[in-house]
Design brief:
Elements: H1 3-12, E1 15-17, H2 23-33, E2 39-54, H3 90-100, H4 110-118, E3 129-136, E4 161-165, E5 171-175, E6 183-187, E7 200-204
Antiparallel strand pairs: 1-6, 2-3, 2-4, 4-5, 6-7
This protein binds calcium ion (CA).
Protein name: Lectin-like
Keywords: Disulfide bond
Pfam families: Lectin_C
Length: about 210
């Protein structure tokens, strides 16, 4: 089906197109697909407005420390930050962090900012903040992205929907929404706090 048809199909069944909020979610989706020769729609589509978010997938940016802006320190946790002095692009740094650690550092509290800042004497350090206009069909605000290298590239200028493509190491690629692929629906009725089983995923191969 096209992306729109797939979305309508899921919604007619009390669900929505698949949302992926973390690497674990991504792996779970791949397991449910269990095929090595397909492209599958994701519930991700390009919108007109861009917003800032965290690479780690922790949703919208609520407290940002743009030059001299103060915000409240409202949470505690044990976090470790490791500074890498090798110079890289933001995307290369993200890939590196995901391979060796968890992700680029998020700074949602003053304490985290201090930790990131203290981790080195460098004038400029990448953090996990990025801006894009992609949004989930189910209106959730998850900011986890797993684009293949060089994607989204908007090849041809009309690539407004996202697929998981085995040809791209199971990572994400932007394509025309009129392409026809199988798809996965997330059941949105399921309780989020059910241990382990976050979502029921139903898969539709032609
Ligand atoms: Ca593309």
């Amino acid at each position: 089906m096209t992306w729109k048809e797939a979305q309508a199909f899921c919604r007619a069944n009390q669900a929505d197109l698949a949302t992926v909020d973390s690497m674990e979610d991504h792996v779970r989706l791949l397991e449910s697909i269990n095929r090595t020769d397909v492209s599958v729609w994701l519930g991700l589509t390009k919108s007109k407005t861009k917003r800032w978010m965290w690479s780690e997938g922790i949703g919208t940016v609520t407290a940002t420390r743009w030059r001299s802006t103060k915000f409240a320190d409202d949470s505690y946790g044990v976090e470790h930050y490791t500074l890498h002095t090798k110079l890289m692009s933001w995307r290369a740094a993200q890939t590196f962090c995901r391979q060796h650690y968890t992700d680029l550092a998020s700074e949602t509290t003053e304490a985290q900012h201090v930790n990131v800042y203290r981790s080195g004497q460098h004038k400029y350090v990448w953090i996990g903040l990025f801006r894009d206009s992609w949004t989930w069909s189910d209106q959730s605000t998850g900011s986890f992205r797993n684009w293949h290298k060089g994607m989204p590239d908007d090849a041809g200028g009309r690539q407004n929907c996202a697929r998981i493509a085995t040809a791209f190491k199971n990572q994400w690629d932007d394509v025309s929404c009129a392409n026809k692929y199988p798809f996965v629906c997330n059941n949105i009725q399921l309780n989020e706090d059910t241990c382990g089983g976050k979502r029921l995923i139903r898969f539709h191969l032609p």
